[in-house]
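Example record

The entry below shows one chain as it appears in the dataset: sequence first, then structure tokens.
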Amino acid sequence: MSVITIRNTDQPTIGKELGKELGASAIDWKRLRRLLLRCGLVVGSVGATLFYINSGFAGLLLRADGVVSRDHVTVATAFDGMVSEVFVRPGDVVAKGQKIAVVKSMPIRKTLAELELERARLRDKLAQLQAREQVVRETLPLAKSSAERAASFLQDLDHAQTTGLAVRKSLQEMTAASLAAAEHAASLEAEQNSLRFELASNRAAFESVISAHNELTTRYNDGTLVASVGGHIGPTVAHVGDRLSLANSPVTDIFTGKPFVLAYLPDSYLFSISAGEPVVIKSGQKVLLGRVERLLPLSENLPSDLQLPNRALERGRLVRISLPEASELPTDQRVRITTCFTDDCGIVRKLFQMTGAMGPGPGTEGSTKPVAAASLSAGRF
């Protein structure tokens, strides 16, 4: 009996075909992963570009430039002149009323001399008018009385002439005398009225000249300029021999009061800030904590040294930020303002306590120390 063995010759073929299908499926998954990766890169690049164009992280985190400032008073002249003496130097501490400089002005001195001459002329004129007015006042009653007597005598003479007791010549002479007396009385009365108006106008002119002279003398003060407030002298002080004019006549600036930061809030910042909000102030290697005092209703261009190169001219809303009492930042120092993540800046405190870099904040004690290794500010300037 013979055994017949049946072999399935199709199995190798089926296995090969299944392997090919599995291989084709693996290649498709690799292509899909590559496609997804490329799409993700494209979407990420486009999103990053749009995010940068629409202000980037500056729109999410507060990052503003600012300047340390103080209230200041400009010491200047209201006239042309030349500096003859200077009593202060940059950085000096001055008290109210202290001498700053002496500025001599030839036009002012000439004007004062002319006012003196005019005052003397008006004084003499007033003396003459007053003397004449006194004479007229005393002689006018006599002139009126004389005119009345002459008129009465003329009437008597006219009556006598009708009865033949007076000659015509005497009547003519008496008529002329009566007319002269009446004219003299009327002239004195008219002069008296005129003198009243002339005296009043000259007195007003005299008082005006005296007032102008006194005011100019007080303002000129012999060219001495004094400090109207106490404070520190600014970095620029005029020198002896400098000529000052009305268009450009500052002698120096006096900085007074507590220092503060005038920050320029960028338009790209997406959130709002309010008074009392804490912020981080960075200047070089110093980091301080400050608080927003108020948002000013003003918007200005950033100073030229704060403008970024190859960028459009930037503007910002002005924000006044208070500095801690123990801060030693100099006036006109450039600073960077960044976000404080909590109400008391606890994160910032812990971060800088690790490095010993935190300076004093509002209501804290201690001295400012340089930052060693950490800073919340992105970039330095």
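Notes for this example: The CA atoms of residues 51 and 254 lie 45 Å apart. Helices lie at 11-53, 106-162, 168-220, 346-353.
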